[in-house]
Amino acid sequence: MERVKTFEFSEKDQDRILVVQIVEIVDPEYGMFTWPCAPVLGQFVLHYREKCIGKNVLEIGAGTALPGIIAAKLGANVILTDAGRFRQCQENSMKSCRLNNVVDKVRIIPLTWGDFTPSLLDLPKIDIILGSDCFYSPSDFEDILVTIAYIMERNPSCVFWSTYQVRSCSWSIEDLLDKWGLTCTHIPLCMFGGDKENIGGHDMSNKHTIQMLEIKKSS
Predict the structure, then answer these.
(1) Containing domain of residue 84, as a range?
(2) 165 HSE (CA, 13 A, CB side)
(3) Distance between CA 39 and CA 33 in Å, rounded?
């Protein structure tokens, strides 16, 4: 069953509203539902909109692509990616791009974490990587960071903005960050309005433990 969910984002301490419509499908596939981390990352992108204007933005594990579409609406050139086997997710993301009139600002390509396929090797210059709730399963952690490290090796000034939900206090990416030459900074949600209730107009985020990370190439 397909539905359209409307998100309304406001910038911290300002009256401007950004409206985004997202197509969701009630389906067992994870990527066809907007999970709580996505609106928090979208709020971060909106708060730091000046860093996105005119930049090349790559969203990994895009799913319904809420953060990437926000970046496109703010003036970024966006590449939305998901694993090659998730063709329906990619088609669903394109529906949302059409609804938000950002088709001319967005490309959708397959990109599977940890796989060095032509779609990864042929990426253009990337300034910002987005990822919401990609750190969902520990079995994926190293594949994600291998992919990020490869992109940052080619684009040393690139940053990875990622939100994740804390599911176990025993899970950590610290050793993997060291292994792949990356550093990580935790960003308090209060710095960009990510701690407020009903982000995007929906009661999705405030009942979960969500963290915001900025990952860069080690100097």
Answers:
(1) 2-217
(2) 15
(3) 12
- Tokens 């003036």 found at: 75
Q: Model confidence at 153, in pLDDT bands (50, 70, 90)?
A: very high
Whether the full predicted model's pTM is greater than 0.85, yes or no, is yes
pLDDT one-digit tens code per residue, 16-71:
789 999 999 876 555 688 889 999 999 999 999 999 999 999 999 998 999 999 99
Find out whether 148 and 129 touch, Cβ atoms under 8 Å: yes
Chain-centre distance for alpha carbon 60:
6
Which residue has 């550093």 as its token pair? 183
pLDDT, tens digit (0-9, with 9 covering 90-100), for 102-127: 999 999 999 999 999 999 999 999 99
**37: left (phi > 0), else alpha (psi -120 to 50), else beta?**
alpha
Angle at 208 between CA 129 and CA 145, to 5 degrees: 30
Which contiguous run of DSSP H or E holds residue 217? strand 210-217
Q: Looking at residue 38, which CATH number applies to its domain? A: 3.40.50.150
Count: domains in the chain: 1
For residue 182, the model assigns a pLDDT of 98
Amino acid identity at 92: N
Per-residue pLDDT, averaged over 135-146, amounts to: 94
Distance CA 110, CA 190 (A): 34
